[in-house]
Amino acid sequence: xxxxxxxxxxxxxxxxxxxxxxxxxxxxxxxxxxxxxxxxxxxxxxxxxxxxxxxxxxxxxxxxxxxxxxxxxxxxxxxxxxxxxxxxxxxxxxxxxxxxxxxxxxxxxxxxxxxxxxxxxxxxxxxxxxxxxxxxxxxxxxxxxxxxxxxxxxxxxxxxxxxxxxxxxxxxxxxxxxxxxxxxxxxxxxxxxxxxxxxxxxxxxxxxxxxxxxxxxxxxxxxxxxxxxxxxxxxxxxxxxxxxxxxxxxxxxxxxxxxxxxxxxxxxxxxxxxxxxxxxxxxxxxxxxxxxxxxxxxxxxxxxxxxxxxxxxxxxxxxxxxxxxxxxxxxxxxxxxxxxxxxxxxxxxxxxxxxxxxxxxxxxxxxxxxxxxxxxxxxxxxxxxxxxxxxxxxxxxxxxxxxxxxxxxxxxxxxxxxxxxxxxxxxxxxxxxxxxxxxxxxxxxxxxxxxxxxxxxxxxxxxxxxxxxxxxxxxx
Length: 476
Hints:
mainly alpha
């Protein structure tokens, strides 16, 4: 076998007599669509050792050759630092372990959709910040599936993927510096949750304009819960609205995680989606593994949900699957997270309320807790945030009632200060008037200079003295 390996075609047909695979000797391989293409070669791995690589299932010889060349180029790059950006990105993604399926899917999409088409042929060691600036400018001019230019958020996510891949290349000694850190991107406007005030509701009805992130008032949430009470997932909507659980946490909640006697539940896992496929694993972060306190009414709602679930189990009989999940379909199987999103939208529309996303209930739960007087640290623990700063910056939109309360308190502070100052002024003015009245009681004709302060004797202002003073002033 040469350094380039071999490319061959084979199939899965078996010898009728012996039952053994025919492999490369099948007579039908001459037919264009029969069998598939493989390559077999020896390469040097990252540890400097030779290993054999055999891969197949390619529809054409050209596809097998391209796959072989990528593996060969990767092997050469490990020793000669001749990696291309495309080769390194594919290797980096395949070698990553311990990342969430959703994270892997997003990295894959950004690599295949943007990075490889624009930068794939550039040598990894020759990639510069100037090239990346041109690349991001070109991506910003492209359009997404809605026909709109890519947002600053999309550009930031692409940069996150590329930065992680290039940092790994630095650790491998393939490049000395990460050129993406020199790239400046448009700033991402931070979107804050807005409350559905009467004015925004009227604008939505008239023009269809809605906030990006919207939060119901307490009255609107109460109206939705009253409308959704007959729904078999009423307990799920209640938990999402009052305790702020994520969609995946609700879908992955098990009865074993609930302790209704002590009024608490534990978040131990989440059911998330990558594409349409469902993956179950640990929650979003270490801080997301938490214990949440429950009020007595929430416990009553969950107990009622358990009774309904037992009735559905009795009705299903042998078709029932005892999976142990809290929120299930009518046969006991866990729900697809995407179903919760669609069901939520239908219930909101049926209630006739302004739209909010299912995830926006987390914003609302934080806002309601803040309005009820809960401190930010407790709210942060309830939501599973790693930092109280994230809670303060993102989730604590203040409801109108709290805004009015804050406005009244601010005005009261100023008015109290003004009243205190006016009281002081009135006291000083009263004292001044009293002093003036006392002064008016003394006749000007009896005033005399202070004998202790002046050496001249006291003079009485008689009419003759006054006439003499006037004559002296006229002469002067």
